[in-house]
Design brief:
Strand content: 5-15%
Strand order of the largest sheet: 1-2
Radius of gyration: 11 Å
Number of strands: 2
Oligomer: single chain
Distance between the termini: 20 Å
Structural class: alpha+beta
Shape: globular
Order of helices and strands: HHEE
Helix content: 10-25%
Bound molecules: zinc ion
């Protein structure tokens, strides 16, 4: 994590799923270690994983 990301890492805006547009709950429950460490969401509607800014995470 860069200094800039850690400084501005708290995203207070509502995050919406990049795929289906569903608003993600403000209080998140990390589904895996990466989400616990870095923040992020898993869309309850379509299962898309995204980071805390609502950018889709492409799994490799
Ligand atoms: Zn979705």
């Amino acid at each position: 994590m860069s200094e800039q990301n850690s400084k501005w890492g708290l995203n207070l805006k509502v995050v919406m799923c990049p795929k289906c547009g569903k608003e993600q709950p403000r209080v998140r429950r990390p589904k895996n270690l990466r989400q616990a460490l870095w923040g992020g969401y898993t869309c309850e509607s379509c299962g898309t994983e995204m980071d805390k800014f609502g950018k889709e995470i492409i799994k490799k």
